[in-house]
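User: Hi! I'm working on a homework problem where we have to compare a predicted structure to a textbook description. Could you give me the structure for the chain below?
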Amino acid sequence: MIRMFTCALSFLLANGLSAPAPAIGNGKKAPRETKPSSVLAADYTRYPVPRDLLDSFRADGHVVLRGLASHIEREGYEPAKALSGGAAPAGKTVIVNHLISATDDRIRRLICSPRLSAVAADLLGVPAVRLFSAMRLTKAAKRGETGIHLDAWRWPFEPHRALTLWLPLTEVSKSMGTLRFVSGSYLDHLVREQYATLRREYLQATYGNLLSNPVKKLMVGDATAHHGLTVHSAAPNHSSRDRVALALSYYAEGTLVSAGEEHKGRIERYFPGVKPGEAAVGPDTPLVFDARPGGRDEEWVFEQAQSE
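Assistant: Happy to help. Predicted structure tokens:
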């Protein structure tokens, strides 16, 4: 239950509030994100997503967001980079460190930022989102390509209203292995309906030649966003420096837990006591943005994008 408090406390401490623990649907007790008088009391600011970027995301399933992270979020970059790493598993090119249970206040303010989660909600066209994971991804110098894949493969919930924000913690040039996407792939019927059973070999054969790299360079504070069903990969890091980035994955409030044996272990881990087809609410998936009537972020100006 520790992780749930990570994001809740970053808001509550900033507003001098405490969190009650109501019952959730499966009868278990889980801390609830209360409604502060204003989540903006911690001097977060809104990032207005221009209409052309909203349209681009809906058409392509990915978009570049220049200057997304403000000074508040960037305060968490150095402590996030400084956390001990480890070695990449055999056959893998990236070291993954999970930050959602980090205790450093600066990292909490980064991963729980309403500025970032509001952008996720805007791109998805929903009023409220939950944070599923916060991962520091380190690709060491001279390491190879990250294979073609779907983020939805590791998500135990329906991924049609979910995305990942990818924020470089250092300046990233094309030679360091920026992300490559297949534009519009998240709209393909086969991907949307059979994503869980598609194999990497199929994606490579079908989409490999369509991968493109729209980003030549990302500065500190920039980000990319991609839909959970967008086919993508990352090029090798040919440079002499490590490529370090933060990946934050969000999904719409009201999303349902997936069916299928392949998700059984992750369902038990992230949504204990919740059955397939029920709302994906768990102790490790805090509600980080809520602009619904009566929600804690109702005062934020929310521009509802058209549904898919």
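For your comparison, note the following. Residues 1-6, 9-41, 301-308 have pLDDT under 50 and may be disordered. DSSP finds nine helices and twelve strands in the chain. Good luck with the assignment!
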